[in-house]
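ERR on first pass: missing label on line 2. Operator R.T. fixed the label and resubmitted. Corrected input:
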Amino acid sequence: MDSFISSYWGMYAVQTVLHSIIASALIDCAFIAWDIRGPRMTQRFRFLVIFLPAFSFPVYQLIRPGRGGVYFRLGSLLDSNKWFFFNFWGVPVFRMLLVLSAVITALIFILQEFLPMVVHLMEQLRGDGAAGGQPVEEAFALKIEDALEGLPIRPGSISVLDDEDLALYSNTWRDPRIFVSRGLLRVLDKHQLQAALAHEIGHIRRSRKPVLTIAYIVRVLMFYNPVAMIEFRKLAQEEEKICDDFAVALTGRPQALREAVGMLRPEPDENPEGGGSQGKAVIRRGARDIAAAFERYSLDALLKSRLRRIGPPAEDETPWGVPFVITFALIAGINYFVV
Amino acid sequence: MVYMAVMAAGVVAFLAALNWFPSLVRPDLARRYATVEDAMRAAGYHGILVPKYFPEGLSWPPAFIFAQKRPFRAVVLEFTEPKTMRTALIVVQSSLKGGAAEAEKLQRIRFARIREQTGYRLKGRDAVLQVGICGDGRPCSRIIWKEGGFYSSVLYMSYPVELIRIADSMVR
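pass 2 clean. output:
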């Protein structure tokens, strides 16, 4: 372990995590200092947390090959080795924490992101993902046709899922397609459906921007980095808000979008045990129930934050160049002295 | 802009405090020392070999003294030329636990090219003598040997004649 931490790749792993933490803190400072709120703006800054730590280490080492050595560390702003070789009662607590956080992050990445993505990709390759080959009732077909009026997408790009749950998503890969469930078609009116479809068109349009794909690839390469994971999830949430803005700009109906998003909010949690104190019920639940409840809570929190901001089209193009350059320089400058 | 400067200063101050705390609690971590005695105490190694012979222009005490106990024991003494203030002699002693590569990292100046490497008997000890060009373009030579569970390495920024005299003065 000692020799790994001192090796090139060991230093890379440690410094990408440390540099991500510092970059994340500094962009949050930038958000406060310059009152940056719009999702387009915050997303631009968040890219710094994903990209800079991944590429800065090799650049720093090129500039100064002895950067990982003792003499640089003596004059550094923060020398991580001091903490990694700092033992409490003979136990290397910080090294253990580093390994533990990397393992947990990697497991979350594999189970929550990588495996579902592989399964989804395989389904698409097999053609299973498009359940839309089935005949659609005329009423639904008419509703879709009405909703698509004025939207920049072909009617053939909409597939109806034979599912009574409320589901709406798009496949932005190869043959872009929007999937909408029968359940959702049943509850949404024409304008709500139009706004929801416009949101998905936003995803399809934005998926053509390579920066998002590159950010995802970098995030995959940093599968062990908990900060990259959190920041990428925030980035994905901002993507939803950007697509909300796109839908409002396209349809001019924020209220309809708000209603459509509101319908996707998960049902309040039911107490499966019935009666009894809440504390007892929580104890009886298995880990799966807790994970599902947590996921439901996260989804609801995201939808609520989207609902709060959906409104008339607003300008999100406040000047960002100077704050961005200053934040970039601060992150690059401070991280150079963190080893 | 002012808010950002204040908050960035706060981040820097927090990092500096994080860097300072372990040294406060564990004085044996890597750091610079004022005297060789302090360095020996910190490294927990009292058998440091020091040169008794110095070529013209170099003298005791070292200009830079560094020691650490973790991740491996090491003491580094650097001597500079008074006129140019450039490092002229580096003595490194480190426990074998760190390995030869790690021990070499403790040298502020490293070989850019080794022109010649040969075995040498240093008062009955097997040593390796290297001659070449160092990273700053100056000719340099180095002698390395093991003694009492420690690597000893002496790097001198010149040809090996004086280096051997220095190393000779360090061992009995």
